[in-house]
Write a structure and sequence with these properties.
- Strand 14, helix 10 and strand 15 form a beta-alpha-beta unit.
- The protein has 20 helices and 28 strands.
- The chain is an alpha+beta fold.
- The strands form 7 sheets. It has a 7-stranded mixed β-sheet with strand order 3-5-1-12-9-10-11. A 5-stranded mixed β-sheet has the order 7-15-14-13-8.
- Helix 15 runs parallel beside helix 16 and helix 16 crosses helix 17.
């Protein structure tokens, strides 16, 4: 492989050898002398008053060092952070400390912590903490929780609705009336995005060590946001940031759920400061399903207006977001800030009306989960197109082609205000249709229907907004950073403020540097996750790491290239403008024999005492990158489903995904990201759902009850792509980590509805549900 062909090449991930051979280091692998272990006492009720807490028996248990309740930490530890408080949350609704005080508001709410010499003692002693509860009625169903007389989580506010936003409807009502008067149609329907558990392979974990001699606190955490975690913990614990170091070792999956600062991280850090010994807490799987943030849980009331030809003239959405019991970092704005801007999907809809309620219920808080608001918005847009097609007896592909934003309309400003960077939506749909043999499939479907079989074809032409970072779009700057240093021997050391954990940036960032420096990729080292050694960054989430963090790396390399060209020009006695870098050598234009190697220039930069005036020794620079706009990946997924008449069992027989993430730095890694995303998106459609009883008991607290997707449930995925570079970053890249999840769910939903020849069925598509529909149709 030539050095210059590094970008766009499918080289294997350099992360994988340590991961697949068991040599990676996770939080629980870190052993410190004198470590104490923490266990959490959790509420067995969904809603109850705390009358008293008796810790005496636990404190007497051999091996127990300390027990803490809310009373013990009151005024000493800050609240769980909320990035953008809205509505009543500004005044304290949904705000909580690390331990419940006065009331518990969901099953698993932390009430106390026990610290002991080992995990087993801590857990045994946790059972000895006696909490006297007064059970209260629970608000579980989100729409019932909004009604007068519903059980209130925060009585002082007189409602469970944290914020209601309802702009005037005059303009959208006029659009609907005019469409209908001109012979068009208007449709109304209700959509549900059920609650999901992120269920990452590695559960949450934290290890905190406070050293009193030098007043430093080190926190190892399975987190997606090392610098934000450090900054927030410093604020919560009233520590200067330089005294707090966060190290994120290997992270066994996050999917957004580790984009938070949880009570256990704060508590472990505080207790280590109190006791002067390391404190470790590792979440077990039942805790993970019961207390780590959930995703989705949104109800949408949708109205759509369209002409008889299928052109959508107006879309009206009232979204109801279930926040759970408390607001976490982005809980209250997942729907409105991340989902609503792309409510129009890939379609040129001239009028879009959005209103919302965000509501507290007696369930685990919701927050970011792979896609975070965008899967819900895409589901609305894609189901709307399918419903229009169904009502007009048109092919869903035809309706999409009629409504797409055209390539010449970019940059395109949606009716929501979002500005899409670039796209060719028709190209992605037509490519997917060609791969799957769409016309032939429709003919096959006719034959199978005539034979009494149930076969459906579903299309989803999604977009997403990602690469978050533009100035002024968040309470703090969402820039990314990179420090690049070329060592004396020519090795490039890259310190990134991003925090990849499975996305493959240790490989793709190295490819960027190797390509630009024209050196072997083996000579590039990528370091991340340690706040003491990496420049300030905002973490890895929202498919932003390469678009924002990778751009910072790219720009840093450009700075060093210019300096190295200047040094080389003096070595070669040529003008800097005549120097080029190719195949690991700096050479003079027109005289390629006059050249010095990359390593030679690096050595001179570090060792020479005769550098030209004005050139500083060394090769190191730090760059921060803040994009001008977000990026908008897109694609089309087509799903073919067959449903067994006797059992109602749905089987995906084919799944084609054509995705466009702009320039592909490593196609193999892109495909891996799509595969993982598809599994989670299809998992929502077919199997996954968090369930609570009416009194707030979690009914899906183990994998015996919460159905996770398994490999046997998927066909071989047929993947392809189009390439539409983004103009908003120097690499031309868009995000891809969430694309599979966002695009796949509506495709499965459309295929199942098409198989049963109905307009819509709510997810998940369990066999008993589909069996009942089949047999109801058959009388």
């Amino acid at each position: 492989m030539g050095i210059a062909s590094m970008l766009g090449t499918s080289i294997k991930r350099r992360e994988d050898p340590r991961l697949i051979t068991g040599q990676a280091t996770y939080v629980d692998d870190i052993k410190l002398p004198g470590t104490l272990h923490m266990a959490v006492v959790r509420s067995p009720y969904g809603h109850a008053r705390i009358l008293s807490i008796d810790t005496s028996a636990a404190l007497k248990h051999p091996g127990v060092v300390a027990v803490y309740t809310a009373e013990d930490i009151k005024g000493k530890v800050g609240n769980v952070p909320i990035a953008v408080p809205v509505g009543h949350i500004v005044n304290g609704m949904g705000v909580r400390g690390p331990l419940a005080e006065g009331k518990v508001r969901f099953y698993g709410d932390p009430v106390a912590v026990v610290v002991a010499e080992n995990t087993y003692i801590a857990r045994d002693a946790a059972d000895l903490v006696e909490v006297d509860y007064d059970p209260l009625p629970a608000a579980i169903d989100i729409e019932k929780a909004m009604q007068p007389g519903a059980p209130l989580l925060y009585e002082e506010f007189g409602t469970n609705v944290a914020q209601n936003v309802k702009p005037p409807t005059d303009e959208i009502d006029k659009v609907f009336a005019e469409t209908k008067a001109n012979g068009g149609i208007t449709l109304k329907f209700r959509l549900i995005n059920q609650r999901l558990a992120p269920a990452s392979m590695e559960t949450r974990g934290v290890l905190a060590e406070y050293r009193k001699a030098n007043k430093t606190l080190t926190v190892w955490s399975s987190s997606q946001i090392p610098h934000l975690l450090r900054n927030i913990l410093a604020s919560q614990l009233n520590l200067p940031q330089h005294q707090l170091r966060v190290i994120v070792p290997e992270v066994g999956g996050g999917f957004g759920s580790k984009l938070n600062v949880y009570p256990e991280e704060t508590l472990a850090a505080y207790i280590s400061m109190q006791l002067g010994r390391p404190i470790k807490w590792i979440e077990d799987r039942s805790e993970n399903l019961a207390t780590t943030v959930h995703g989705r849980d949104q109800v949408d009331y949708v109205e759509v207006a369209a002409t008889r030809e299928g052109k959508v003239t107006g879309l009206k959405v009232h979204g109801i977001s279930d926040l759970g019991a408390y607001s976490q970092l982005f809980t209250d704005v997942i729907m409105t800030a991340f989902g609503f801007p792309v409510s129009g999907g890939s379609y040129d809809i001239p009028h879009i009306y959005l209103s919302s309620d965000v509501v507290f219920t007696n369930k685990v808080p919701t927050d970011a989960y792979r896609g975070a608001g965008r899967p819900e918005a895409t589901y609305v847009a894609e189901r709307a197109m399918d419903m229009v097609a169904y009502a007009l007896h048109k092919d869903p592909a035809e309706v999409r082609l009629l409504n797409f934003v055209k390539p010449e309309q970019f940059p395109y400003k949606s009716a929501t205000g979002a500005v899409y960077d670039s796209g060719n939506y028709q190209g992605a749909l037509e490519k997917a249709m060609d791969i799957i043999g769409y016309k032939e499939l429709r003919e096959e479907q006719k034959r199978k229907r005539a034979a009494g079989k149930f076969m459906g074809i579903g299309i989803s032409s999604y977009i997403e907004i990602c690469g978050f970072g533009p100035k002024g779009t968040a309470p703090v700057g969402l820039y990314e950073s990179a420090r690049v240093r070329v060592e004396q021997n020519g090795t490039a050391m890259v310190y990134t403020g991003a925090s990849p954990h499975g996305q493959g940036e240790e490989t793709t960032f190295a490819q960027i540097v190797a390509d630009e420096f024209s050196i072997p990729v083996e000579n590039v080292m990528i370091l991340h996750g340690d706040t003491d050694s990496t420049p300030e960054g905002r973490g890895t989430y929202g498919s932003r790491t390469t678009a924002v963090g990778g751009s910072a790396v790219f720009n840093a390399v450009q700075k060093l290239k210019e300096k190295m060209k200047l040094i080389a020009s003096h070595m070669l006695e040529a003008s800097p403008g005549d120097i080029s870098l190719e195949d690991g050598k700096f050479s003079v234009a027109g005289s390629p024999q006059k050249a010095v190697s990359f390593a030679e220039v690096a050595a001179v930069a570090h060792t020479s005492n005769t550098l030209a005036p004005g050139i500083e020794p060394g090769l190191e620079t730090t760059v921060f990158f803040e994009p001008d706009a977000c990026v908008f990946p897109f694609g089309t997924h087509i799903c073919v489903v067959e449903i067994d008449q006797e059992t109602g069992e749905p089987q995906i027989t084919r799944f084609v995904a054509v995705d466009d993430c702009g320039r592909q730095l490593n196609p193999m890694i892109v495909q891996g990201q799509i595969h993982g995303g598809l599994a989670q998106g299809i998992g929502q459609a077919l199997w996954e759902s968090v369930e609570y009883s009416e009194d707030g008991q979690l009914l899906t607290a183990t994998f015996m009850d919460y159905a996770m997707p398994a490999a046997e449930g998927f066909p071989p995925f047929e993947l392809d792509h189009t390439v539409t570079p983004s103009p908003v970053n120097p690499l031309g890249v868009k995000g891809v980590g969430e694309a599979g999840t966002i695009g796949s769910t509506p495709a499965v939903a459309a295929a199942v509805a098409d198989a049963l020849n109905v307009d819509h069925i709510d997810m998940p598509y369990k066999p008993e549900k589909l069996w009942k529909i089949i047999h109801y149709q058959q009388g």
